[in-house]
Write a structure and sequence with these properties.
Radius of gyration: 14 Å
Low-confidence stretches: none
Helix content: 25-40%
Number of helices: 2
Oligomer: single chain
Largest sheet: 2 strands, parallel
Mean pLDDT: 85
Strand order of the largest sheet: 1-2
Length: 91
């Protein structure tokens, strides 16, 4: 199994945090330009992220989409499958 790499950035600005985390991991060399990208965040519950810490905060998802588009991604899709029989649109 490959090594898992994680970066941790402390900031109040999700966009700054996303950029710094990607730079720490060296992911800016992924070849984003012209790509179609699927993000699979944890958006599996309709409860606010403050009440359900396992959910990716919507501001972080937005910051990541912005980053990918600025780096030249052709199209960015966001998809997930909710749990507990909930509909995706609700979450």
């Amino acid at each position: 199994m490959g090594k898992v790499r994680v970066s941790l950035v402390k900031t109040n600005d999700p966009y700054v945090g996303v950029r710094e985390a990607i730079e720490i991991l060296g992911l800016e060399r992924m070849g984003i330009k012209g790509s179609r990208i699927l993000l699979k965040p944890n958006i599996c519950s309709p409860f606010p992220p403050e009440e359900t810490p396992s959910i990716t905060h919507p501001d972080v998802i937005g910051a990541l989409i912005r980053y990918l588009k600025e780096e030249g991604a052709r199209k960015v899709f966001v998809g997930d499958e909710p749990v507990w029989g909930l509909k995706s649109r609700l979450c």
